[in-house]
Amino acid sequence: MGGSEDEILVAGIRNKLPHYAEGPIVKGFGRGSTELGFPTANFPEEVIDGLPDELIGGIYWGYAQVQNGPVYGMVMSIGWNPFYNNTKRAMETHILHKFEPSDLYGQHLRVIIADFLRPESNFPSLQALKDAIANDILNANKEMEKEQFSVLKSDPFFQSCAKNCR
Ligand code: ADP
Ligand code: RBF
Ligand code: MG
User: Fold this and answer.
1) Rounded Cα distance, 90 and 45, in Å
2) Taking 80 as the threshold, does the pLDDT of residue 112 lie above it?
3) Which of 34, 43, 59, 118 lies at a 20 to 30 A Cα distance from 11?
4) CA neighbor of 118 nearest in space, from 35, 60, 55
5) The pLDDT value given to residue 2
6) Is 99 helix (H, G, I), strand (E, B) or coil?
7) Are 60 and 116 in contact (CB under 8 A)?
């Protein structure tokens, strides 16, 4: 990216952030991103319908909470699925935590999308995509240290662990 047209697009995206979303974790299209090394918790169609159009086709970072558990950082991909003739969008959250046990299907996921990282793009190889995601996580961790964003981690949108912890 570069140039003023891109800057205008990014300003339009940031105007819609932070974005709050929640819903059950559903099965994806079975592409098995565990092979990528980055499992992504998928939201159902109804949650995707609540997205502003400006956010589609981008990679973001923010915060995520499963059920009433701790709040972790996350990276998210919001894009079109070519297998569904570009009519199905996917909203996939990779939570920056190693879950044990790792099956989160059916559990309630809350996310706050804090900021835009980069546009969704095509990569020449699986390794190039993996490298890009690893770099997204590095950038997310850097941004998380900024005070303007850290307030989101303790946003009342995330349920308190004090009364109803799991
Ligand atoms: P699907 O195509 O069904 O989304 P994935 O291969 O993307 O399958 O794996 C996503 C699933 O892995 C999630 O729905 C969740 O149950 C589990 N999971 C385990 N750890 C994580 C994590 N750190 N972030 C996201 N999902 C995770
Ligand atoms: N897929 C792409 O085709 N292009 C991308 O630029 C891209 N970036 C991603 C960034 C992150 C942080 C994550 C979690 C996923 C990204 N993906 C991208 C989606 C990835 O291809 C998808 O999770 C798998 O195909 C499994 O559904
Ligand atoms: Mg997934």
Assistant:
1) 8
2) yes
3) 43
4) 60
5) 59
6) coil
7) yes
Q: Tell which atom from ligand 2 comes closest to the C-alpha of 75.
A: 12
For residues 111-123, average pLDDT: 95
Query: Does residue 3 have a pLDDT over 80?
Result: no
Asked if residue 28 has its Cβ within 6 Å of ligand 2, the reply is: yes
Spatial separation of the C-alpha atoms in residues 25 and 39, rounded to whole Å:
12
Catalytic residue among 54, 92, 143, 145: 92
pTM above 0.90, yes or no: yes
Please work out, in degrees rounded to the nearest 5, the angle formed at the alpha carbon of residue 30 by the alpha carbons of 116 and 75.
Answer: 20
DSSP string, 115-140: EEEEE----SSHHHHHHHHHHHHHHH
Residues with CB under 5 A from ligand 3 (ion): 28, 40, 42, 92
pLDDT score of 65: 98
Token pair for residue 120?
A: 């969704």
Q: What residue has token string 């969704």?
A: 120
Does 92 qualify as catalytic in the annotation? yes
In this prediction, residue 84 carries a pLDDT of 66
Tokens of 87: 């009519």
29-51: average pLDDT: 86
Burial tier of 160 (Cβ tally within 10 Å: 0-12, 13-18, 19+): exposed
Residue 67 CA to ligand 1 center (angstroms) comes to 15
Q: What is the pLDDT of residue 21?
A: 98
